[in-house]
Amino acid sequence: MNPDNKTWRAKLLLAVILFGMAAGLYGATLKIDYTWRWNRVPQYFVYKNEELHKAPFDGRVGKITRQGETAVIELIGDAGEKDRVTVDADAVEVSEDDLLFEGDTLGATHQWRLGPLTLGLWTTLWISFFAGIIGMVLGLITGLCRISRNATLRGLAVTYVELVRGTPLLVQIFIFYFFVGTVLNLDRIVAGIAALAIFAGAYVAEIIRAGIQSIPKGQTEAARSLGMTATQNMIHIVLPQAFKRTLPPLAGQFISLIKDSSLVSVIAITDLTKSGREVITSTFATFEIWFTVAALYLILTGILSQVIAWMERRLAVSD
Amino acid sequence: MIKASNVTKIFTGRGQVVRAVDGVSAEIAPGEVVVIIGPSGSGKSTFLRCLNGLEQFSDGHIVIDGVDLADKKTDINKVRREVGMVFQQFNLFPHKTVLHNITLAQKIVRKRTLKEAEEKARQLLVKVGIGEKESEYPSRLSGGQQQRVAIARALAMDPKVMLFDEPTSALDPEMVGEVLDVMKQLAKEGMTMVVVTHEMGFAREVADRVLFMDAGKLVEEGAPEQIFSNPRHERTQLFLSQIL
Ligand SMILES: Nc1ncnc2c1ncn2[C@@H]1O[C@H](COP(=O)(O)OP(=O)(O)O)[C@@H](O)[C@H]1O
Ligand SMILES: [Mg+2]
C-alpha cells in the first residue's frame, strides 16, 4: 500500500470518529430536550447600541435637516432657548412644528459596541500577556539564581519554585487576593496578574535552568577564553542557545498560562470565563456559550502555537 | 612570554583527590613553539587550561607577559585576550554564522567597530583558506573547516600566545592535514604556540621544544630530535614505543 493511500485512510477514519462524536453529542442534547439557540450568541460579541435623545425643555420642533445618514433637529423652547440635536436619519421620531415637553423622545443614534465575550476575551488576552512577560522575567532571574554559585541565591530560588509548584494555583490566587492584596492594597487585576506571573515564573525558572545546563560547557570555555566576561557569555552565547532549546517547553508553559488565567475569575476579574458565566445568567444558552468560550480559548492558544512554531522555524536556520 | 613555576592542580570530588598537574615548571619564550605530549590523563589539557585561567591552579605561579595569574588583583579577562585557545571539539558558537563567530569577541571584548572586526575576520578567513564560507553556520562546515574557523576566531583577538588542545584529535584523518598546515603557517610567522597533540610528525617538524608529561608531572623536555630519537626517561621511551 502506498503511503498516500495510508494517510488518506487514516484521515477518513479520524473524520468518521469525530463526526460520530459530534452526532453523539447532538443525540445527547436531544435526549435532555435542549433547544439550541446559536443565534443568540453573536450579540455577545458585538451589538448595536441604541441611545435615545430627549427634549431638554418644553417647546416645539424647528427645522429638521437630513444629511445622508444623520438628521439635525432644531429645537425652540417656550422661553426662547434654542438647541440642536443630531440623530440617525432613519430614527427621527418627531416632525417639524411638533409640540414638545421636556423628556420627549426626539430620535435615536445607533452605535456598534463590543459585547461581553469580546471584552472578556480581551481581558484574558492582556492579563495573560502581562503575566507571561513578568513570569518570563521572574523565571529568567530565578533560573539564573538557581545555577548561581551563591548558595543564598540558590536557596531562595529553590524555595520559591518549590512553594509555587507544591500548591494549587487557585489557592495562590486567593492568597494573593485576600492576603497580599489586602496588605499591599492591590487592585484585584494587579493581584490576579501577580499571582499568575509568580506561578508561571516558577515553571519558567525550571525550564530555563534546564536549558542553560543543556548547553555544552565548551561553549562557555570558548567564550571565556576569548576574554568575554561571565555576563557577556550569558547574554551572547549561553542564553540565545538555551532560548532556542527551551522554546517548545516555554510555549507549552504560556499556553497553560492562557488557560490557567481562567482561574482569576474567582476573584471577580471579568475575563473570558467570567464573561461567559455572566452571559449565561441572562441568556440561559448554557451549552452554546461554554462551547463558544472554549473555542475562543482554543483560538488564542492556537495562534500562540503558530507564532512559536514560526519562531522555531526562524531559529532553525543554524541547525 | 610564559613562565610556569611549580604549577599544581588538584581536583577533589566524589571523595577522590586527583593531582592532575603536579609541580610543573616550564618557560616559553616569545616566538617559540612548544609541543606537549603524553598519555591520556597525564594532565596535558589541565596544564594548558591553567595557562589561560580556565582552571584555577591550586599551587605555584604562572606569569604571562609579566602578569601573575595567581595574583588576586589580576583581571583574568584581560589576560585571556592575549592568550588564544583552540579546543579539540572546536566549540564554535552554533547560533552564529562563521563571520559572527569571529567578530563577536572583537566587538565586545576588543571594542572594535563592526567594520574593523569584519575586515579582520575576512582577512583571517582567507588566511585559513575558507574565505567563501563567512555566512554559513558552523553546522554546515566539515570538522576541518570548523577547526580552521576556530583558529581564525582566536587569532582575531591578536593574541600574543596561542594554546592548542589536541586540535586534530576529533577530525577525520583526511582533514588533519589542512588544520596542521594552518598551524605550521602560524609557527612560521613567529606566533608563540603551546600545542598538545599526538601528531608526532607535526612535533618533529615544527616544535622548538617537546615536553613529555606523565601522571601530572613534567617528565622530560628537549629538542624534538632528542626526545624522539634519544629519550632519556624510561616512561618517555615506553610512551613513544606505543604510539610510533
Ligand atoms: N574537571 C575535572 N574534575 C576532576 N578530575 C578531572 C577534571 N579534569 C581532569 N580531571 C582529571 O585530571 C587528570 C588529567 O586530565 P587531563 O588534563 O584531561 O589529561 P590529558 O589532557 O593529558 O588527557 C585525569 O585523571 C582526569 O581524570
Ligand atoms: Mg586532554
UniProtKB/TrEMBL annotation, chain B:
<comment type="similarity">
    <text>Belongs to the ABC transporter superfamily.</text>
</comment>
<dbReference type="InterPro" id="IPR027417">
    <property type="entry name" value="P-loop_NTPase"/>
</dbReference>
<dbReference type="InterPro" id="IPR017871">
    <property type="entry name" value="ABC_transporter-like_CS"/>
</dbReference>
<dbReference type="GO" id="GO:0016887">
    <property type="term" value="F:ATP hydrolysis activity"/>
</dbReference>
<dbReference type="GO" id="GO:0015424">
    <property type="term" value="F:ABC-type amino acid transporter activity"/>
</dbReference>
<keyword id="KW-0813">Transport</keyword>
<dbReference type="Pfam" id="PF00005">
    <property type="entry name" value="ABC_tran"/>
</dbReference>
<protein>
    <submittedName>
        <fullName>Peptide ABC transporter ATP-binding protein</fullName>
    </submittedName>
</protein>
<dbReference type="GO" id="GO:0005524">
    <property type="term" value="F:ATP binding"/>
</dbReference>
<keyword id="KW-0067">ATP-binding</keyword>
<dbReference type="InterPro" id="IPR050086">
    <property type="entry name" value="MetN_ABC_transporter-like"/>
</dbReference>
<dbReference type="InterPro" id="IPR030679">
    <property type="entry name" value="ABC_ATPase_HisP-typ"/>
</dbReference>
<dbReference type="InterPro" id="IPR003593">
    <property type="entry name" value="AAA+_ATPase"/>
</dbReference>
<keyword id="KW-0547">Nucleotide-binding</keyword>
<feature type="domain" description="ABC transporter">
    <location>
        <begin position="2"/>
        <end position="240"/>
    </location>
</feature>
<dbReference type="InterPro" id="IPR003439">
    <property type="entry name" value="ABC_transporter-like_ATP-bd"/>
</dbReference>
